[in-house]
Design a protein that fits this description.
- The protein has helices at about 10-20, 40-45, 85-100, 100-110, 135-145, 170-175, 195-200, 220-230, 270-285; strands at about 1-5, 25, 35, 55, 75, 125-130, 150-155, 165, 180-185, 210, 235, 255-260.
- Helix 1 (about 10-20) crosses helix 9 (about 270-285) and helix 3 (about 85-100) runs parallel beside helix 5.
- It has about 300 residues and is an alpha/beta fold.
- It has 2 domains: about 1-80 and about 265-285, Rossmann fold, CATH 3.40.50.720; about 85-260, NAD(P)-binding Rossmann-like Domain (Rossmann fold, 3-Layer(aba) Sandwich).
- A 7-stranded parallel beta sheet has the order 8-7-6-9-10-11-12.
- It contains 9 helices and 12 strands.
- Keywords: NAD, Oxidoreductase.
- InterPro entries: D-isomer_DH_NAD-bd, NAD(P)-bd_dom_sf.
- It holds the Pfam family 2-Hacid_dh_C.
């Protein structure tokens, strides 16, 4: 028996798991294995329910890293399905901006023929902060566009697909080279406010910043200041510390900022169940689980 904790897709998970003859319920007290949205799993843990394995249906698991929660279970997350979606999101924004597509939509509405010059992504520098699977897929497409791709990871180790990698301690040096910075960082104590007044100050005035990782990594006040003073050319935010973003947030009216409601990469139940069933077979055969999360690191 598997416990499904999902507000959005319970019936879809149930239907897909039934194809594999897997019985399900929504009561965490009667199951050792939870297929769960992290926030709902955290709530169940606080109610003293104790699983052996939590299979997160998302990549991000920050709700389960809180200091008051137990860590005596195995935690896995979803991987290797978000890279293409994140990549599409990043380049949709870059290409739309570079080719002035919103301008032409408005020009068409006004029946105006007003061509405007544009640049190319070729020979521009993209700095990707987070060189895991998603970062590597973004890097592959950036390279195909002729961009120079620099990576940032914890220790500066070389990663295939990046021309050079910097350590996190060298973040400012890396950002100073960028035409666009893309953050894919998870939410940990080490990533909180990593992008702040000092890091934005190192960037070129035309450069852009895109965050598809987690909202805690960005000092919002510093970002607003950088955009309003034209210290930074533009920004795109898909993730925020508080979601939904409050109606009174100053971000809504910040110039040169695009906001989207955490839509860069969705979890599709069919893909989630596919990975879960494969891992369930490993669990039943007492083999090591794939996509384990280090609860101390948060990823």
């Amino acid at each position: 028996m598997i416990c499904i904790l999902s507000q959005r897709h319970f019936e879809r998970y149930k239907k897909r798991l039934a194809l594999h003859n897997i019985d399900v319920c929504d009561d965490p007290s009667c199951c050792d294995i939870w297929l769960a949205e992290p926030a709902l799993a955290a709530k169940a843990l606080r109610q003293r329910h104790q699983p052996e394995w939590i299979a997160s249906v998302y990549a991000g698991v920050d709700a389960l890293i809180a200091a008051d929660l137990p860590r005596n279970y195995q935690l896995t997350n979803i991987r290797q399905v978000f890279g293409p979606l994140m990549t599409q999101y990043v380049f949709a924004h870059l290409l739309s901006r570079m080719r002035h597509l919103p301008r032409y939509v408005e020009a068409q509405r006004q029946q105006l023929w007003q061509p405007k010059g544009y640049d190319s992504l070729a020979n521009q520098t993209m700095v990707i902060v987070g060189t895991g699977n998603i970062g590597q897929q973004i890097a592959t497409v950036a390279t195909a566009f002729g961009m120079q791709v620099i990576g940032v990871n914890t220790d500066g180790r070389d990663i295939s697909g990046f021309e050079r990698c910097f350590a996190t301690t060298q973040l400012h040096e890396a950002m100073s080279c960028a035409d666009v910075v893309v953050s894919i960082l998870p939410s940990t104590t080490h990533t909180t406010a990593l992008f702040n007044q000092h890091s934005f100050a190192t960037m070129q005035p035309h450069a852009g910043f895109i965050n598809v990782g987690r909202g805690n990594s960005v000092d919002i006040d510093a970002l607003i200041t950088a955009l309003t003073t034209q210290q930074l050319g533009f920004a795109v935010l898909d993730v925020f510390e508080q979601e939904p973003l409050p109606a009174d947030s100053p971000l809504w009216h910040c110039p040169n900022l695009t906001i989207t409601p955490h839509v860069a990469a969705a979890s599709f139940p069919e893909q989630v169940v596919g990975q879960f069933v494969e891992n369930l077979q490993r669990y039943q055969q007492q083999q090591p689980l794939q996509h384990l999360v280090d609860l101390n690191k948060g990823y």
